[in-house]
Design brief:
The protein has helices at residues 3-14, 33-50, 69-74, 86-94, 127-136, 146-159, 173-181, 228-238, 244-249, and strands at residues 27-31, 54-58, 81-85, 104-109, 111-116, 140-143, 167-170, 187-191, 201-206, 215-221, 253-258. The protein is of the alpha/beta class.
């Protein structure tokens, strides 16, 4: 078997490994669900072209519990790069967890709706239709991170149905989509990037603009990282035109090298 094939396979598998206990991996990344599908599609190219091996772990941008990035950093987990919603990143910056000036916006994405594959497509074209769809749902699934926080604390109260609809919050976007794929919930509300090209569910569309949240996903270097040059190369790659097609494939809009400001 050609050595190039073996090397490529090894590098591709490295993207799925947890944070290692050995010195073999050169860069550790912690990522939330919204940008993860596009990230995993382009990561093998980065590894092949740079020779930098990357290990990736998953965490929620915001929320409660031990799986959020903030909670993991507080208990001593030290990735080199974090990729998460701008809201969650702002919390990490305020807590002094991020190297100043290294945060870069990668993509923006709206909130959307999906149903179980093969089920009728509900109406979300207008605010009234969206509200009726929510009221008619047996159970609504949503992630417990940035989009779910917004939906629970802002959208449902604004529509006057916070105490009327049945909602189940999953720890991650994958938990929420799984509820719909298995038939436990009727609909899922989440970033579009977590709803398209996902087995078992069918993307319905964006929720109405009156109750929309356009999330920005960004990357930054974590304070204390001793791999800043490698981290910078990865962030530059993710913000480059080489990732634009993958970003668009999963329902996001590329933002390029746009820093906060």
């Amino acid at each position: 078997m050609p050595a190039s094939f073996i090397d490529g396979l090894a590098l591709g598998l490295a993207a799925l490994l947890p944070l290692p206990s050995t010195g073999r991996t050169e860069l550790n990344v912690m990522i939330s669900g919204g940008f993860s599908l596009a990230y995993r599609e382009v990561l093998p190219e980065f590894q092949l072209t740079t020779g930098i091996v990357v290990a990736t772990t998953s965490a929620a941008s915001q929320g409660t519990g031990s799986n959020t990035m903030k909670a993991q950093l507080e208990r001593g987990v030290r990735p080199d790069v974090v990729i998460l919603s701008r809201e969650g990143l702002s919390e990490l910056i305020a807590a002094g967890r991020i190297v100043s000036g290294t945060d870069v916006n990668l993509a923006s994405v709206p909130i959307g709706m999906a149903v179980r594959l093969g089920q009728p497509t509900p109406d979300v074209e207008t605010l009234d239709a969206f509200k009726r769809t929510l009221l008619n749902a047996r159970l609504i699934a949503m992630p417990g991170s940035t989009s779910g926080i917004f939906l629970l604390n802002d959208v449902l109260p604004r529509l006057g149905i916070a105490d009327t609809v049945s909602v189940k919050v999953g720890g991650r976007g994958t938990d929420a989509t799984a509820m719909v794929a298995t038939g436990e919930a009727d609909i899922v509300l989440a970033p579009v990037s977590e709803l398209v090209n996902v087995p078992g569910i069918a993307f319905v569309g964006r929720i109405p603009e009156e109750v929309q949240l356009i999330q920005v996903f960004a990357a930054a270097i974590v304070a204390g990282s001793d791999r800043r040059e490698e981290a910078k190369r990865l962030i530059e790659f993710l913000a480059s035109g080489r990732t634009a097609a993958a970003i668009e494939k999963f329902g996001m809009a590329p933002l390029g090298n746009r820093h906060a400001g």
